Amino acid sequence: MNSLKRIFFTLKAQLDDVADDFENHEAIAGVAIKELEAYQGKTRIHQHRLQEMVEELELKLAELNNEAETWSARAVKFKDQDEPRALECVKRMRQVQQQIKALEPQLAKAQEQYGQLHNDLAAIQSQLHSLSTQKEVLSARQNRIQLQTTLQADNGNPTTGAQAIFKRWEQSVIGAELTGPIPPIKDSFADEFVQEESALELKMLLDELAAKQQAE
After folding, report:
1. Angle value at C-alpha 153, between 148 and 154, nearest 5 degrees
2. Under 8 Å between Cβ of 121 and 96
3. pLDDT value, residue 141
4. What angle do CA 42, 116, 99 make, to 5 degrees?
5. Which ranges of the chain does DSSP label H, i.e. alpha helix?
6. Which of 176, 136, 174, 171 is nearest to 25 (CA)?
7. Mean pLDDT calculated for residue range 1-18
8. Closest CA to 150 of 165, 163, 161
9. Does residue 113 contact residue 84 with C-beta atoms inside 8 Å?
10. How far apart are alpha carbons 171 and 96 in whole angstroms?
């Protein structure tokens, strides 16, 4: 856990040292989070290796315990029949028990370290969640301030720029309308005469066709 505290203090010190020298605080915070995520990954790898070690030691101890029980049962079995053989079984049993005695502290130590790493990972995950949330909140607040500052300024204001673009477009359209060809003026009174004359001409042509057909 001491190593975990050290990396937290190191990251905090780095942020404190450079925060005032850079404008992009979001990028700096992102780098700090990436470093913590990398440390989390290394811790998980170490924890996985410890887990494998614990499982191997547990399996080995289970095998040795079974072997010790086997030698014990053999010693009792041959006690009355063949004492030298029984004593050899006791000797083998004691050798196995010594191996068990040597492995048990190793297993206990590995289990303890595994538990510590488990707690470290929980603490790292909590810190990552807290830092990521804080980063998003501060980023949103900073973006809002920058937007308000930009909107209040005349230069570089995107809203003002957009309005100017549409205004220039409208003026261009109005100018094109004013300089374009003048449409002809409609005279409805004269149009009535033209329509009547066209209709009369068509009727006369129809009568002419009818008369020609009757003559044939």
Report:
1. 140
2. no
3. 82
4. 100
5. 2-18, 25-78, 83-152, 158-179, 188-215
6. 136
7. 56
8. 161
9. no
10. 99
Collapsing DSSP to helix, strand or coil, 156 comes out as: coil
**Per-residue pLDDT tens digits for 11-45:** 555 555 544 444 577 788 888 888 888 989 998 99
Burial class from Cβ neighbours inside 10 Å (0-12, 13-18, 19+) for residue 34 reads exposed
- More confident position, 168 or 20: 168
The answer to whether 78 touches 29, Cβ cutoff 8 Å, is: no
Which amino acid, one-letter code, is at 216? Answer: E
| Longest CA–CA separation in the chain, Å | 156
Regarding pTM above 0.70, the answer is: no
Percent of the chain surpassing pLDDT 90: 31
- Which segment, 25-34, 110-119, 155-164, is predicted with the most confidence on average? 110-119
Q: Looking at residues 182-204, what average pLDDT do you find?
A: 73
In sequence order, the 6+-apart residues with CB closer than 8 A to the CB of 67 are 96
Both tokens of 156, joined, read 């570089």
- Extents of the domains making up the chain: 2-152
Tell me, what amino acid is at 4? L
**Residues sharing a CB contact under 8 Å with residue 135, sequence separation 6 or more, in sequence order:** 26, 29, 30, 33
